UniProtKB/TrEMBL annotation:
Origin organism lineage: Eukaryota, Metazoa, Cnidaria, Anthozoa, Hexacorallia
A Pfam entry, by short name: Ephrin_rec_like
SMART domains assigned to the protein according to its UniProt record, in alphabetical order: Ephrin_rec_like (SM01411)
Gene3D superfamilies: Tumor Necrosis Factor Receptor, subunit A, domain 2
Organism this protein belongs to: Nematostella vectensis (Starlet sea anemone)
Protein name: Tyrosine-protein kinase ephrin type A/B receptor-like domain-containing protein
PANTHER family reported in the protein's UniProt record: EGF-LIKE DOMAIN-CONTAINING PROTEIN, SIGNAL PEPTIDE, CUB AND EGF-LIKE DOMAIN-CONTAINING
Superkingdom per UniProt: Eukaryota
Domain named Tyrosine-protein kinase ephrin type A/B receptor-like: residues: 1-40, 47-94, 110-153, 160-207
């Protein structure tokens, strides 16, 4: 007599049968020599693994994947890569983790790639899979794409004012200058032979 192979069982004692009973479709056993129909448990599909303690299927956690059915463990991504979701069922789902100042694009031609945070946002986390960057607070902005610190969020100056990037404050345009847009770093000089009557001019018509 030999043990029943995996995915079969024999629940009859003292018999002369030449083959074991097969588990039903979608079922499997963990070991050879199974003696009960109840030893046939659900086959976990790709993206999941069998928890051998609870005998239940669980999704592969982030950072792992499983391409095959009926496995008892997931495979870790290598090279510092991560997955965007749980239950990843292909090694192609392992993506490069994003650095500070970038986020993971999930749509368009950049899908699955790290792209710089747009102006007005930042990302201060390293090796992450965040799908958007953190916004600066209301009335604040950044000077460039790819900002990696909330400390780089600066006041967004109103028309008639400009940002002093050293002091990180908004200052009024000096006399003979104007600025008709918000969020600017400098003011425009009035045309030749034109002046303004005050600081903080916000339109060329005030020249």
């Amino acid at each position: 007599c030999v043990d029943c192979p995996v995915n079969t069982y024999m629940d009859v004692e003292m018999h002369g049968k030449r083959q074991c009973k097969a588990c039903s479709i979608g079922k499997m056993t963990l070991v050879t020599g199974s003696v009960r129909k109840e030893d046939c448990i659900d086959i976990c599909v790709s993206g999941k693994f069998l928890n051998t303690t609870t005998l239940s299927c669980q999704v592969c956690p982030k950072g792992t994947f499983q391409e095959a059915n009926g496995k008892t463990a997931c495979i870790p991504c290598t090279g510092g890569k991560i997955t965007l979701n749980n239950a990843t069922n292909s090694s192609s789902g392992c993506l490069v983790a994003c650095a500070m100042g970038s986020y993971m694009a999930v749509t368009g031609f950049q899908q699955g790639h790290c792209v710089p945070c747009p102006v007005g946002t930042y990302m201060d986390q390293y090796k992450h899979d965040f799908r958007e960057c953190k916004p600066c607070g209301l009335g604040n902005m950044t000077l460039r794409n790819g900002t990696s610190s909330g400390g780089d969020c600066l006041p967004k100056c109103q028309p008639g004012r400009f940002l002093d990037t050293t002091k990180k404050i908004c200052l009024p345009c000096p006399k003979n200058y104007f600025q008709d847009r918000d969020g600017q770093l400098s003011c425009h000089q009035c045309p030749d032979s034109h002046i303004t009557l005050r600081n903080g001019s916000d339109n060329s018509s005030q020249c």
